[in-house]
Amino acid sequence: MKKRAVIALGHRALGTTLPEQKIAVKKTAKSIADLIEEGYQVAITHSNAPQVGMIHTAMNEFGKSHQDYTAAPMSVCSAMSQGYIGYDLQNAVREELLDRGIFRTVSTLITQVVVDPYDEAFYTPTKVLGRYMSVQEAQEERKKGNYVIEEPGRGFRRVVSAPNPCKIVEIDAVRALLDADQIVIACGGGGIPVLEQDHRLKGASAVIEKDLTAGKLAEEVNADILIILTSVEQVLINYGQPCEEKLGEITVEQAKIYMEQGHFGIYNMFPKFRASVEFIEKREGRSALITSFDKVKDGVHGKAGTIIR
């Protein structure tokens, strides 16, 4: 039996602009191909913050200039970002695998994730996105029921909620692709947030934390390891202090203590640890690896990164 891994790609692995992304995914594809050569079945998920912000801004500006068009809701922008990123990423991985003589289909799956309409996050939006707006534009957004914050000296920006992922709608398709030994890119940007209304799915004005969805994806496909790629090789505690320390291999219990002690930023490292802990606790024998995209191969052999068991 092959081992199964879910890889969550951060911003560095994708770049920000279209030209940056083209270059970045080629480097990232090498790390993914290394893992496949190691005998893993791989599902890939990724961040989308710069991309979805760019798409949201572009669609809104287009709607202002053309009367017959409306601004695109967040759920639609999220879907666009999944296709846009997945297109470059699947081609880069496919090309890298073929260069190594590995013939494997790589597919991007437009993926929806159900969120709870009563999630506390909907009452306290935290995710800032899109361009800076004028006072008048901010007022218009507020009239629509959207949240807006002011950044002194710079302008106003839209803020959306970040609810927890409850269920991955297309999970059966993801499992089928993995069972067929194919590579699948799914739940990009945390998935398209949707609300269940009987048998209908309605897009929600929100952004799901991609690391939490990565953990949910890893759980649902019964992965052996969750790999979260970020900008650092190892996680640090007591950052910037004389007692600063790199974390190598730690237990779930240790990870929980560090989380409770407030060592990790609530919007960067904390979700990675939360996703890892929740994933590992669901079944014995699982592990999680947090490292940079160029240290994946060393990380799965215990030679790099922060490993939680």
Give a quick set of tags describing it.
309 residues; alpha/beta; eight-stranded mixed β-sheet; four-stranded mixed β-sheet; 17 strands; globular
Q: What topology, given as strand order, has the largest sheet?
A: 3-9-2-1-12-16-17-15
Percent in strands: 15-25%
Distance N to C terminus: 21 Å
Query: How many β strands by DSSP?
Result: 17
Low-confidence stretches: none
Largest sheet: 8 strands, mixed
The mean pLDDT is 92
> Compute the gyration radius: what is it?
20 Å
Count of discrete alpha- or pi-helical segments spanning 4 or more residues: 9
The structure class reads alpha/beta
User: Helicity, in percent?
Assistant: 25-40%
> What's the helix-strand series?
EHEHHEEEHEEEHEEEHEEEEHHEHE
Concise description?
By secondary structure, the chain is an alpha/beta fold. The chain is built from nine helices and 17 strands.
Question: What would you note in describing this structure?
Answer:
It is built from 9 helices and 17 strands. The longest helix is centred in the first third of the chain and has 26 residues. The strands form 4 sheets. It has an 8-stranded mixed sheet, with helices on both faces. The chain is an alpha/beta fold and 309 residues long. A hairpin with a 7-residue loop joins strand 13 and strand 14. Helices cover 39% and strands 24% of the residues. The protein starts with a strand and ends with a strand.
